[in-house]
Amino acid sequence: MTEKGLRLKHITAADMDDLLALEHLCFSRPWTAASFLAELLAETACHLGIEKNTEPAGENFFLTAYLFFRVIADEMQIMKIAVRPAHRGQGIASLLLGAGIQQARQAGAAASFLEVRSSNTAALAFYTGQGFRQIGIRKDYYPGSKSAEREDALLLMKNLKEGL
After folding, report:
1. Helices 16-26 and 33-41: crossing angle, nearest 10°?
2. Distance CA 144, CA 61 (A)
3. 63 confidence band (pLDDT: 50, 70, 90)
4. What's the CA gap between 52 and 158, in Å, rounded?
5. What DSSP string describes 122-161?
6. Mean pLDDT of 142-161
7. Quick one: pLDDT band at residue 149, thresholds 50, 70, 90?
8. Angle 113-130-95 (CA atoms, 0-180°, nearest 5)?
9. pTM score above 0.85
10. What average pLDDT does the segment 22-45 reach?
11. DSSP-assigned states of every residue in the chain
């Protein structure tokens, strides 16, 4: 993929510094290096990134987005997706998710699942626009902003066999 100065890549341990920097930009409760390393080493895990060129026709790319997911049996479980805040709304997440879904389908996945905070309206709008639908609620799944608070997760699903 070289669309719009973008290129798709497989994330490796060599990308750890860029992953952690992007993670801290995107999440109030970021994953640690140990969390990312565990996903990079997990047998069923897949990890894709999109790099963006900083100059036209140049070779100076930086990590703009990443997607971590697992394919277990016939299910794709989306673990984490992030896009650099300054590059949101440009279709990067759609390109990345599409590449991940294609890879999961090739590995035999028939459906994709994820959890999202009930308060994350931007993520809900994105996933709904990508064909995901709510199939359940996980009560008090996420820690809240204060130690005693918890937040529900909405369980979303997309049939990966539709439209084939």
Report:
1. 120
2. 35
3. very high
4. 28
5. HHHHHHHHTT-EEEEEEEEEEE-SSTT-EEEEEEEEEESS
6. 86
7. confident
8. 100
9. yes
10. 94
11. --GGGEEEEE--GGGHHHHHHHHHHH-SSPPPHHHHHHHHH-TTEEEEEEEEESSTT---EEEEEEEEEEEETTEEEEEEEEE-GGGTTSSHHHHHHHHHHHHHHHTT--EEEEEEETT-HHHHHHHHHTT-EEEEEEEEEEE-SSTT-EEEEEEEEEESSTT-
17, amino acid identity:
D
Given a contact cutoff of 8 angstroms between Cβ atoms, the answer to whether 111 and 160 are in contact is yes
Instruction: Indicate the average pLDDT of the chain.
Output: 91
73 near 43, Cβ under 8 Å?
A: no
**Higher local confidence (pLDDT), 95 or 62:** 95
The pLDDT of residue 58 = 64
Residue type at position 19: L
Which residue's structure tokens are 């896009």? 83
